[in-house]
Fold this protein.
Amino acid sequence: MIVSIILGVIIFGYAFWALYSSIKKSKKGVCASCEIAESCKGNCTTSRRK
């Protein structure tokens, strides 16, 4: 019983942490949260106005 509770807490804790970090990265923007942003040759600008 206790093992099931501990496993549940670990699984739900990881799920909430993954969701939190995903939201935190999405607030940074596309290029700021990309792992290869420093070596990327893409056209990432902070504001694109037409």
